Amino acid sequence: MQRGNYLCKASDAVKLAAIHYYVWHGPYDESKEQFSLTYMRELRLGEQLMPTPLVTAQSGFDWEGRIQKEQVKISEIFAKLSGGRGISSSEAKVMYIKKVRKLQMYGTTLFHVHNSKIFPVRVEKRSLRTPPNAPCPLAPSPAGLDASSMGGVECV
């Protein structure tokens, strides 16, 4: 999620960031330094916890402020679920996974595919000097690797 490989709404990313922060520091407590906006901004939590494409696209946005507000909500929800004591770090990790499972892209696998028929390999025509007794460079062709498919490349 954080690398931005899987798309999600900004609101979902903020919720996940708040749960992640809960795992690190426990329930929100305004008397503790780690929950102050100044502290969160110094750590640049937006860059650490939010998907990179979101942070890049909205560079001037106050992600830390949104994460802090969501942290307050998450802490209240977790307190209600646990009868007022708050939940453990392990239980918060389970809540994180439950939230991720609800995302549209959950369970998908992405592969990088290169189709040479659509995007053919381009070889520039130029002269190439090689050291004496060195083999001539080969280039890809539909029939396999072939030196003649290099067009104007010459081994000198």
Task: Explain what the structure shows.
With 156 residues, this protein is mainly α. The chain folds into two domains: 92 residues, no CATH class; 45 residues, no CATH class. It is 42% helix and 4% strand. A hairpin with a 2-residue loop joins strand 1 and strand 2. Helix 1 crosses helix 5 and helix 1 runs antiparallel to helix 6. It starts with 9 loop residues before the first helix and ends in a 10-residue tail after the last strand.
Short description:
The protein has 156 residues and is mainly α. The chain contains six helices and two strands, in the order H-H-H-H-H-H-E-E. Helix 1 (10-25) crosses helix 5 and helix 1 (10-25) runs antiparallel to helix 6 (89-101).
